[in-house]
Write a structure and sequence with these properties.
By secondary structure, this protein is mainly alpha-helical. The protein has one domain. It is 62% helix and 0% strand. It contains twelve helices and no strands. The chain is globular. One of its GO terms (biological process) is ubiquinone biosynthetic process. This is Ubiquinone biosynthesis protein. It comes from Chamaesiphon polymorphus CCALA 037.
Length: 212
């Protein structure tokens, strides 16, 4: 386990309620900023310490592997590969691999891996970046991580449904598939995605037992 991760596990400042409030305030107009606030809110909480212990045990040796991503290089891969699809997704969203990495993660390889993994998980699971896609992915990852971030995203489900009633059937379908598939799938946190960019998405899903 990395030194930085160990230090974070030992910190006992608790949940940052101010950051949690900011996350709820800005999430709808700016989801990326909301996610950064929720990561800051949970950083020193006992919940997050428990989650990191679980995930680091599942991830094993790759906890200390440094992830580097070259989007231009990945764009040379076919669009049906993990890396090719991920690079195109990032460009479409206007994101970079560093979008969800704050200063606290600069020297934390495992934290960086988890932050970068979110958009990779969109490709792995087949959930797009629309609101109902994000809810589906949150359901999948909450079952796998049991973390505050995905719980936070799922907490918006009733409010979204009330304002988007025509999307409710697809929302329910995505939530169901997310919970069921996340429960049945192998642990995504243990999958070294940076070493499997060239694999087809279908192959990756078969390896991880992800329901398509």
């Amino acid at each position: 386990m990395t030194t930085v991760l160990t230090q974070r596990l030992r910190n006992r400042q608790g949940l940052n309620w101010g950051e949690l409030w900011q996350a709820y305030r800005v999430f709808m107009p700016d989801p990326a900023q909301g996610i950064l606030h929720i990561r800051e809110a949970e950083r020193y909480s006992s919940w997050n310490r428990w989650v990191l212990r679980r995930l680091s045990r599942q991830a094993g040796a790759i906890c200390d592997w440094v992830v580097t991503v070259d989007l231009e290089q990945l764009l040379e891969l076919p669009p049906d590969t993990l890396g090719g699809a991920y690079a195109r997704h990032m460009l479409e969203q206007g994101f970079t691999p560093e979008t969800f990495i704050n200063e606290d993660l600069d020297k934390d390889p495992f934290g960086q891996r988890l932050a970068i993994a979110h958009d990779v998980q969109h490709i792995m699971t087949g959930f797009d970046s629309s609101p109902v896609g994000e809810f589906g992915l949150a359901a999948f990852m909450f079952v796998q991580y049991w973390d505050l971030l995905n719980f936070f995203v799922l907490s918006w489900t009733p409010w979204f449904a009330m304002g988007n009633w025509k999307s409710i059937p697809q929302l329910l379908a995505n939530l169901t598939r997310g919970f069921v598939s996340g429960w049945r799938a192998r642990a995504l946190v243990a999958y070294p995605y940076e070493r499997n960019w060239a694999k087809s998405i279908s192959t990756v899903r078969q390896e991880l037992r992800i329901i398509e």
